Automatic annotation (TrEMBL):
This is Sodium/potassium-transporting ATPase subunit beta-1-interacting protein. It comes from the Eukaryota. The lineage of its organism: Eukaryota, Metazoa, Chordata, Craniata, Vertebrata. GO terms for cellular component: plasma membrane. Pfam families: NKAIN. It is a multi-pass membrane protein. The chain crosses the membrane at residues 27-48, 55-79, 145-164. InterPro entries: Na/K-Atpase_Interacting. The keyword Glycoprotein does not apply. It is found in: Cell membrane.
């Protein structure tokens, strides 16, 4: 039996992604990450409990997960008419952006009061300057890393399923894996056994 094909980096990467999406109120990625965490746990359970079907579910999910992360990369790089400034990832509920847009490496956040402008009293204008790396590239790197991990997980899950299948095919349901069973069946016909008892 194999060890788990889902080592801690799989879980840590999913949790890390979930935390930063929560901080940025990115609702679509939050739901996708939540589903991803559940499927990873299901894959772990399938490996530990010798349930190849659960691992197959994980392998299928990795294909969906890769597709989702490719979409995120296209979204932040504004490929095919997508715009990183749209509210697509927040389901048009809020105008929040990626947490990294204001908290990236080297970013300095400045707030300017909007008092005096009708309808905007009490609000502030936020400008971010000095970022060493634009936030969309950080999101692209996050998604690229998720794709890499998903591909490794897919290959390893396929390997584990094949090992489990081979074990099932080679398993002797009477004698286990041992080609010579520990017990012996008496092969004498029953009529000979009766004759011996009466003699």
């Amino acid at each position: 039996r194999c060890n788990s094909p889902f080592p801690s980096p799989f879980q840590l990467a999913a949790l890390e992604r979930q935390v930063f999406d929560f901080l940025g109120y990115q609702w679509a990625p939050i739901l996708a990450n939540f589903l991803h965490i559940i499927i990873v746990i299901l894959g772990l359970f399938g490996t530990i409990q010798y349930r190849p079907r659960y691992i197959v579910v994980y392998a299928i999910w990795t294909a969906i997960w890769v597709t989702w992360n490719i979409f995120i990369i296209c979204f932040y790089l504004e490929v095919g008419g997508l715009s990183k400034d749209s509210e697509l990832l927040t389901f048009n509920i809020s105008r929040h952006q990626s947490w990294w847009s204001e908290n990236g490496p080297g970013c300095v956040r400045k707030e300017a009061s909007m008092s005096g402008i009708k309808g905007l009293d009490g609000h502030s204008y936020v400008s971010v300057i000095g970022c060493a790396l634009e936030y969309r590239y950080i999101e692209v790197m996050h998604s690229s890393f998720q794709i890499l991990i998903a591909l490794v997980g897919f290959v390893y899950a396929c390997y584990v399923v094949s090992v489990f299948t081979e074990e099932e095919d080679s398993f002797d349901f009477i004698g286990g894996f041992d080609p010579f069973p520990l017990y012996h069946v008496n092969e004498k016909p029953t009529n000979l056994l009766f004759k011996q008892t009466y003699l």
